[in-house]
Amino acid sequence: MTQQEQQEQQESKLFFSRHLLEWYHQQKRDLPWRRHRNPYYIWVSEIMLQQTRVDTVIPYFHRFIERFPTVEALADAPEEDVLKCWEGLGYYSRARNLQHAARQVKEQYGGNVPNDRDAVFSLKGVGPYTAGAILSIAFNRPEPAVDGNVMRVLSRYFLMEDDIAKGPTRIKMERLAAELIPEGSASHFNQALMELGALVCTPKSPRCLTCPVMEHCAGRLAGCETSLPVKTKAKPPRPEERLAALIEGRGAHAGRVLIRQRPMSGLLARMWELPHWPAPPAEGAAPGARLADAAAQDRLRRSLVKAGISARPSEHWMAAEHTFSHIIWTLQVYRCREEEGLPLPMPLAAEGLAVYRAEAAAAVTAYSLEGASANGAGTASSDIGEAGMTPSRGADLESVLLTDSIVPLEVEVFADGTENPEDMGAVRWINREDMARYAFPNVFLKLLNSYFDVQEGRKE
DNA sequence: AAAGCGGGGTA
DNA sequence: TACCCAGCTTT
Known about the structure:
Blueprint: H1 3-27, H2 39-49, H3 54-67, H4 71-76, H5 79-86, H6 93-108, H7 117-121, H8 128-139, H9 148-157, H10 167-180, H11 186-199, H12 218-221, E1 238-248, E2 257-261, E3 272-273, E4 276-278, H13 293-306, E5 311-323, E6 327-338, H14 350-376, H15 397-403, E7 427-430, H16 442-455
Parallel strand pairs: 1-6
Antiparallel strand pairs: 1-4, 2-3, 2-7, 5-6
Helix pairs in contact: 1-11, 2-3, 2-8, 8-11, 9-10, 9-11, 13-14
This protein binds a DNA duplex through residues 47, 50-53, 55-56, 88-94, 97, 124-130, 147-149, 164-167, 203-204, 233-234, 266-269, 322-327, 441-442.
Enzyme class: hydrolase
Cofactor: [4Fe-4S] cluster
GO molecular function: 4 iron, 4 sulfur cluster binding; 8-oxo-7,8-dihydroguanine DNA N-glycosylase activity; adenine/guanine mispair binding; metal ion binding; oxidized purine DNA binding; purine-specific mismatch base pair DNA N-glycosylase activity
């Protein structure tokens, strides 16, 4: 680069910083977390804003701050309260990490959000972007805060064709963003950068004509602003067919349905849901094809029994879809009836388990008989017999139970009365009022509300 | 370095 | 309906 080019580059940077800051002072939105410079508010808002739009976050932010007004209040709250407050916002590890970090702040920093880089960065759930955002926005420290908005803005203004999905690109952008921060204005400037990305320099159709730095935007001058930033696209989510059970209680559980808690870690960790299991593909059918109704009910019955839940599918109720970034669940939801005679909810004592196993044996035998005759008649109800769990007559029940690919509900109490702390999967019978106490992923929230609506005669 | 982790918006 | 958005943790 010649000396002249370097000088032009320098002027371009100064122009950018000056005009962007000026624009921000005129155009900034009135957002709840901008009304105070409370580091805790900034922190909570930044965690919520990860992968989430401002409009979605605002109501959650108000509720969260009202419920947990201080770091200490958050640190001292029961985890399920925090999860319930986050319900519907997605990426629930953010909520658990945030509370974990609040406890870090309470114990290690006397309840005050730290203002040095290493300390902030050490907080659970705080990575390079969020650390920079907290340090700059809350403490006006000259740290870069490079998120997707910022990378889009910078890649266009400086016409950078680096793949923003790659790690080294973020490092490069952070170096550049740090150089751009005007002396003493880190807080406003970093927010300005993100505000521009959100309001003007949008992914699809950037509003260049209203942009405060359009005159020196290299991407626009080259006419390639809409093809920036360069980014390798993620692979598509894999489809997963699942069978879900909406179990209607009887007797003591009349008017209630059964929910279970997910495992301590992994997908939707510790959230509550209707029980559901993978639907194996029908033999010889196209992958992803729906299981025939009778076969699906049979399969679901087996899953229920093996999970220690005494209930029987009665009819297909509805299908529901839940999309993650990496999986698409298609849930076929079956109404099921609780079968009386065996106490629910779990956990099972050893004797109870033996009873269930006996019933499972009966179910397996019944299945074998039905399956055999159905096969003889040439119908299509034999599609449960996938590898590893063919329930042929005389099959060893224990081996069926143990080698079945279905993950059982972990509802057993060990012989000494203790529970498995890692995979304890609690179950509960709930009515609509009880829903307020449990955090559900959106799809189950909608299913349960819809179900109770029908029960209460509010809808068809 | 790549994969896992939700939910809502727009074209 | 198809596609887009995107930061941190874990592996």
